[in-house]
């Protein structure tokens, strides 16, 4: 029994065990200038160069966990006595090749994890000599394997079989409700923080209504969010309770003067907290470091702890004094680093200096300060990157007047590891000011200096608000004057209060780490917030907006609530990026919070999001090292690269918003996502107004397509029609109601090195409006074509107002929106308020 008809494919049977289809090839042969072109009703042609231009059909099917295998039978054949053109190289060769092409009638590509999909490719055409065989009717059977699962979110592709199976929730967890009022505390320095009546008042809460003995202290962010999905599955739902010291005298249910809470706050610094990924199958050289490991968190220096009022607090354990080995000094590691240079203008890695070899300027000097020096021996550890693989380097390390030279080799292969050199000195370190001199010689390379560390014996009496750390546990008495507070911090999220012994003159502890506190700290920001506000909800259309853009996002949401294609009564929602951080990265500004949020919403919201908009620019400069007046990192980007150096300027270190909605690791988006790269409220307001007016604006311009093609003009070009051919292919596949307007650079004369008449013609045609636009050719961040048919400056001359095309830019680098303080052709084309494009699809990094 036929279940339903979808275009040229009919579903004969759809059961959990199999899917049976009947495909009927509907096609026409159009001849233009003596060249036959086969057009398939449901087809496309994207074959590699040298293959005949034969279209094929693509359909998507849902598959069970075990996937499926395809069987087929060709029921009916016919033939056409034609020779189709060859893809790509038709003009270069000056004629048509006679390459035979005999693809399998049906094949299926399977992707996804438990809730799988199949990309069913049907090839109705076979070329043999001057004849095209047409597989007119094909019977297809897909045998299903395994259990069925399905997603809760709507997929961006249409599938032809039924939705079946239970909802799969691999990585998201349904989070329990947790009531009460929450206060968010922000800080940067490690130390002991004091919460008193004034802090509660700063949050805008009457301390008379707060019982300090019911305040929980909580912390959730332990390390930078990794890029793999399994990491998100390991995260706790709520910030965890941590022990605190409660000094409450009156026990009257209110926060009185003189009462306070003390807790130990951990900073985000440390290599162990900022590891993104390792390569377990790769053995680095002894002097190289694991890729993607940083001392400073690349995204923020600000950690977040939480107070939950009306809870059940966890009180800190106090250890009794004991006997142990008296110690007055320890091996301390002082880390020196200043992230100030990003030569690749991309990625996560920042450096402190650069040497380009060969050069006489092969030295970097850094001043540093040492206190509490107790002995002469010390160890110097330096970290730096090199660019050229397998190069021998002679590195001289000098501390004040003492130096040593080390010969090492740069890493092999594509792993851009940091080289780590460690050497011992018998003397040379001064109390107070010191100078490190780093010199390197090599035949040719770029060397990027990253950090250095001094490991030396330091007197415990020199530590005032800091750690004392030993390599192993043991009974010790830390000989020092009595401090405001001393904590055992082997587990920094479960510290223990230490007791001072007057008789032994110190603090007893049998662990590795101690924090000595002389002065108490106060949070940098105190604010009421809610880390569970997004656990319940639903939205067909979802906008994540920069905090300053929520008003404009809500205006767009109001429009979308009545105008969303495919939905008669859509649910819409706007959330701020701060709310996303509060709910899904414990308040810390980690971009992984966006992925965790969208993953959770797709699995637990009703309805789950079908469209996601990011409203706000993001940059690789997460912490505003470039010193802009206002950071442009409004909605952070995702990048997984750490390559350094000028050679990566236009490659490597990809920027990818799709990662936020790729939930099964196959690099395909599970939810359509886009970004508006606004940096100011004015830009956000203008774009929202532009979009709404665009959707309201009818006219004949909606029946025009603008196609711009480069002439491939370069000093070494031998194929002037390469991009023209791509443009013509696009033109042939346009529907009949859409009129193409063509600006082909090959038809315009040179005036010097430019073609100003092409520029004027393109500007004129765009200003008259079009519903869609295409560009094929060369370009970069600032211009299209070598002859500058369009530059960033030209965009401000557009006058197409709301007759804005959806523009596809098939060129390099035109969508590099992530550079701070800059615009690319792609994003300014869209943001320009008086015209340009309504949306640009352009190449990001």
From TrEMBL:
The keyword Signal applies. Coiled coil: none annotated. InterPro entries: Caspase-like_dom_sf, Gingipain, Gingipain_N_sf. Keywords: Signal. One of its GO terms (biological process) is proteolysis. The keyword Phosphoprotein does not apply. Residues 542-845 form the Gingipain domain. One of its GO terms (molecular function) is cysteine-type peptidase activity. This is Gingipain domain-containing protein. It comes from candidate division WOR-3 bacterium.
């Amino acid at each position: 029994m036929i279940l339903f008809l979808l275009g040229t494919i009919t579903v004969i049977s759809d059961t959990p065990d199999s899917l049976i289809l009947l495909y009927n090839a509907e096609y026409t042969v159009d001849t233009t200038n003596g060249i036959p072109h086969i057009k398939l009703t449901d087809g496309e042609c994207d074959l590699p160069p040298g293959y005949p231009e034969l279209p094929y059909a693509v359909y998507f099917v849902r598959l069970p966990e075990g996937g499926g295998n395809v069987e087929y039978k060709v029921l009916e054949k016919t033939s056409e006595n034609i020779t189709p053109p060859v893809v790509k190289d038709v003009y270069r060769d000056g004629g048509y090749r006679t390459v035979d092409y005999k693809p399998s009638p049906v094949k299926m590509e399977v992707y996804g994890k438990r809730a799988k999909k199949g990309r069913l490719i049907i090839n109705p055409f076979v070329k043999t000599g001057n004849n095209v065989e047409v597989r007119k009717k094909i019977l297809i059977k897909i045998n299903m394997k395994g259990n069925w699962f399905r997603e809760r979110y709507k997929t961006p592709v249409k599938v032809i079989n039924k939705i079946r199976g239970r909802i799969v929730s691999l990585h998201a967890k349904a989070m329990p409700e947790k009531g009460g009022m929450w206060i968010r505390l922000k800080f940067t320095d490690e130390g002991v923080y004091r919460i008193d009546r004034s802090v509660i008042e700063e949050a805008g809460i009457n301390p008379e209504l707060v019982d300090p003995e019911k305040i929980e202290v909580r912390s959730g962010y332990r390390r930078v969010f990794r890029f793999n999905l399994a990491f998100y599955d390991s995260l706790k739902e709520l910030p965890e309770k941590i022990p605190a010291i409660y000094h409450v005298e009156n026990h009257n249910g209110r926060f009185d003067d003189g009462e306070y809470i003390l807790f130990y706050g951990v900073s985000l610094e440390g290599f162990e907290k900022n590891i993104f990924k390792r390569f377990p199958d790769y053995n680095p050289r002894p002097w190289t470091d694991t890729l993607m490991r940083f001392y400073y968190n690349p995204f923020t220096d600000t950690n977040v702890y939480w107070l939950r009022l009306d809870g059940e607090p966890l009180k800190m354990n106090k250890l009794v004094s004991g006997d142990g080995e008296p110690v007055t000094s320890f091996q301390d590691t002082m880390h020196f680093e200043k992230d100030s240079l990003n030569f690749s203008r991309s990625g996560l890695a920042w450096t402190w200096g650069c040497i380009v070899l060969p050069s006489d300027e092969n030295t970097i000097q850094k001043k540093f300060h040492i206190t509490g020096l107790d002995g002469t021996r010390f160890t110097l550890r330096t970290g730096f990157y090199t660019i050229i693989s397998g190069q021998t380097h002679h590195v001289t390390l000098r501390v004040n007047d003492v130096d040593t030279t080390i010969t090492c080799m740069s890493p092999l292969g594509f792993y851009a590891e940091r080289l780590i050199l460690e050497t011992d000195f018998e003397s040379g370190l001064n109390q107070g000011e010191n100078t490190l001199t780093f010199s390197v010689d090599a035949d040719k390379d770029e060397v990027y200096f990253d950090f250095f560390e001094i490991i030396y014996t330091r007197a415990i009496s020199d530590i005032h608000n800091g750690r004392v750390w030993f390599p192993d546990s043991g009974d010790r008495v830390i000989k020092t004057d009595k401090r405001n507070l001393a904590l055992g911090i082997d587990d920094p999220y479960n510290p223990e209060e230490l007791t001072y012994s007057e008789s032994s003159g110190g603090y007893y502890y049998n662990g590795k780490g101690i924090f000595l506190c002389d002065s108490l700290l106060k949070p940098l920001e105190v604010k009421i917030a809610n880390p569970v506000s997004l656990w319940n909800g639903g939205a067909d259309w979802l906008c994540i907006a920069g905090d300053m853009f929520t008003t404009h996002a809500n205006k767009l949401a109001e429009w979308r609530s009545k105008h969303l294609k495919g939905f008669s009564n859509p649910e819409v929602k706007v959330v701020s990026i701060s709310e996303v951080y509060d709910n899904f990265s414990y308040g810390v500004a980690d971009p992984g919070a966006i992925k965790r949020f969208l993953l959770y919403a797709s699995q637990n919201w009703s309805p789950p999001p079908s469209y996601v908009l990011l409203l706000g620019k993001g940059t690789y400069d997460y912490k505003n090292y470039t010193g802009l007046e206002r950071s442009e990192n409004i909605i952070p980007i995702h990048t997984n690269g750490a390559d350094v150096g000028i050679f990566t300027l236009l490659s490597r270190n990809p920027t990818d918003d799709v990662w936020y909605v790729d939930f099964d690791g196959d690099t395909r988006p599970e939810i359509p996502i886009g970004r508006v790269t606004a940096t100011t409220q004015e830009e956000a307001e203008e774009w929202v107004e532009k979009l709404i007016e665009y959707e309201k604006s009818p006219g004949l311009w909606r029946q025009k397509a603008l196609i711009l093609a480069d002439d491939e003009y370069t000093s070494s070009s031998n194929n002037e029609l390469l991009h023209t051919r791509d443009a013509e292919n696009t033109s042939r596949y346009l529907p009949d109601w859409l009129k193409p307007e063509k600006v082909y650079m090959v038809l315009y004369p040179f005036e010097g090195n430019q073609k100003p008449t092409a520029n004027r013609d393109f500007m004129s045609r765009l200003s008259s409006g079009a519903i869609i636009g295409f560009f094929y050719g060369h370009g970069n961040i600032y211009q299209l074509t070598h002859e500058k048919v369009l530059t960033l400056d030209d965009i401000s001359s557009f006058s197409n107002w709301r007759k804005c095309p959806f523009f596809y830019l098939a060129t390099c680098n035109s969508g590099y929106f992530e550079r701070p303080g800059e615009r690319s052709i792609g994003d300014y084309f869209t943001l320009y308020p008086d015209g340009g494009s309504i949306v640009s699809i352009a190449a990001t990094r």
